[in-house]
Amino acid sequence: MSDPTCDGQTRGVVVARVLEDRPHPMAQRIRLATIDLGGSKQQVVYGGRLVLTPGQFVPAALPGARLPGRKKMRCRRYHGESSYGMVCSSDELGWTTGGPDEVAILDPELMLEPGQSLDEADERWLLRVAEVVAR
Questions:
Q1: Hey, what's the torsion of the CAs at 92, 70, 9, 121, to 10 degrees?
Q2: 111 pLDDT exceeds 50?
Q3: Is the per-residue pLDDT at 6 higher than 80?
Q4: pLDDT (tens digit, 9 = 90+) per residue, 44-102?
Q5: Which secondary structure element, helix H or strand E, spans residue 129, and what is its range?
Q6: In the chain, where are the structural domains located?
Q7: Distance separating alpha carbons of residues 58 and 52, to the nearest angstrom
Q8: Taking 60 as the threshold, does the pLDDT of residue 2 lie above it?
């Protein structure tokens, strides 16, 4: 993995706390998570081998957010279920390259708050996040 950098291409990504995780009722390889955004709750659809656990902190790109190399995020439907944004891997955020295509789990020792912006995270903070993701 490379050193994470904040190159200004990621905008609108916030900290989300996982409230609930469950299998998608009509698809085997994707899951549904309800996330707390600090005043509101949203459902997101995600994939990968990792199953999220209530209480974990994850990065969430909400509708209108921009990720490196991607179009602006919007609401979508996956097999009949609405997704109001996405939970992101460290690669999708541009923090690392060549990492696992799994949702990044943020270090709870960073005293994160749901809804807190990740756009202005400093380099030391990103390095610490990358260390947790690599475990």
A1: -30
A2: yes
A3: no
A4: 988 877 889 999 999 999 999 998 888 889 999 999 999 999 998 888 888 778 877 78
A5: helix 123-134
A6: 11-127
A7: 9
A8: no
Token duo for residue 31: 């899951």
User: Own/partner pairs for 88-91, CB < 8 Å, 24+ apart?
Assistant: 88/13, 88/58, 88/59, 88/60, 88/61, 89/48, 90/1, 90/4, 90/129, 90/130, 90/133
Q: Which residues pair with 18 in a beta bridge?
A: 35
CA dist 105 and 102 (Å) reads: 9
Instruction: Work out whether the CA dihedral 22, 24, 30, 36 comes out positive or negative.
Output: negative
CATH of domain 11-127: 2.40.50.140
